[in-house]
Amino acid sequence: MATFATAVLHARDAPNSRSHLRHEASSSRGRSPGVFGWQTRIESHPSSRQSSPMPTPTLSPSDSFSQNRSFSGLPVHYPLKSQPAIRPDIYPPEIIWLRAEIPEYIDISTSNKSRPPMVQCLRGTDGKVLSSAQYSGIKEAVRLVFMQDLAPLALADEQRKPGTDIKRSMMWYKDNHRERWWSAIAKIEYYQEVISLCANHWKAEQLLSNTITSYTNMKARRTDSPSPSTGKHRRSPSTASSHKKRRTRSKATPAEHPGCDAERVDDLNMVSLDIISPIDIRDGAPGNGGGDPNSRNAETDAEIAQLRFMKVLSTYENLRRVLQNEYGTIQNARQLLNAMEASTDVNHQEPSPEVVEFVKQIEEADPSAEFSEDDRNEGWGHYQFTAGELTCSSVLRNWRAIGNTGMARRLIAAAVKTCRVARSVCEL
To answer: Where are the domains of the chain?
Structure first.
């Protein structure tokens, strides 16, 4: 929520709205590298990686990895630095040097043995798990590398071979674009050295593989989703009947939304369904007392599927109440609502098509049991705003793109809904 409110207020003008991590270089006396600092720019580099003149790179979208150039004007080359197979003594065992050591320090679910929770695997030089903010920054940096260096390769292949059922996974990139794959790994480890603290680049490869899987799944869901003209998900008869009495619709009127025409009010009504708690769904489900793990997994999958119907009323009154009760520390969000309600000159512009589609995909997003453990839990909510072609940074460029206060409220309501769904998924 804080990120969203800042994005709307400043429209990407603040360069440090998207922070990333840097690593302090090892000293000449061989001390172990320090823990990553939370900085926008990378200010120092290990001497072993300074074989050629390098610009001071940044990780912001406008000056990102693929746009970096050396002083000669050619693309920057990132040498792949391999770590020893045996963990150096300067690092503690808890750093998880080998992939095979994961079960010694982390409990992995049987359904995701091939996709360990990297939020627990990434650790600083002292063996301690990174903070959630640091991990989110690293995931975003990896996603940027993928979107800029690897995703275009798959898109070009899709255009050359339309209609072919090819799974463009990590192995597809390694088999068909091996040099580009290892170049991406080198770039990731260069900028985020904490990822390189392992043997055989397993942490960088796993993070990049998770990014590819999440991107592919989301792209497939968007392809299979209804056309914009319908804008609705189908529900099975059993689902519709079981929740018919729980759902109530609060009709918005033009008087409640000054500056919005009737069509806009109808759009607001589409997102004005009251909250349906996943606890209600769980309490009403049959067979909760059973001990069959397969039955329990089926129930969990069903509960996850029902979270798509969780909505948030986008009126000023409701948003103020939600922000006060659930996000009391975010002062600028309430200030934004007050400013929007008091404004008389920003109600009649049309939002950009990209913003309309961006808000719609957030409103209609639902978590999937197919996600990796990183992209479920809190990672699912983060992914809604940063994945694919439509992201906060690419869509929310300025107020003109958002267009009017009705669309801004829809976006705030969608952010609240996403947060609630993500928290509910964590509790399942």
So the answer is: 16-224, 246-427
